[in-house]
Amino acid sequence: MLARRVLGTSRRAALGSAEAALGGLKSIWGSSRPHCSALSKDVTYRELKTLLNSKNIMLIDVRDTWEIIEHGKIPGSINIPLDEVGEALQMTPRDFKEKYHEVKPSKSDSLVFSCFAGIRSKKAMDTAISLGFNSAQHYAGGWKEWVTYEISEKKQEK
Fold this sequence. Notes:
Layout: H1 2-29, E1 42-43, H2 45-54, E2 57-61, H3 65-71, E3 77-79, H4 85-89, H5 93-100, E4 110-114, H6 119-130, E5 137-139, H7 142-157
Parallel strand pairs: 1-5, 2-3, 2-4, 4-5
């Protein structure tokens, strides 16, 4: 019983500290919700389909190569595994073309990162933004969501 009380007290103290810290952030930001910039950083399935059809983006799949071989990829994407993204975006255009068989994006190009379920793509987007690729976005639904929508659309076409 005493252990439960002590645990409960320390848990409440920890939560109180977290709330205090968040309260400090609220006063800095003005609210607890982060403000969105003009360009939303999350791309939906429909938005990604439109962007791919426009050919105005580079879709970078950051899953490991074996995952793409085993599960497939979004048509039009190129594979740059997450642990290579930072280095790849800093390569010379010639080295990038040689390794990835695509023209290296410039810092003003629209990049969208994808992975299986949105975790790695968010990390890749953050890396790209830190390197000055300010138009970087990510497809939070990832391959998992893409396949679900694609199967659904194919059924509707029949």
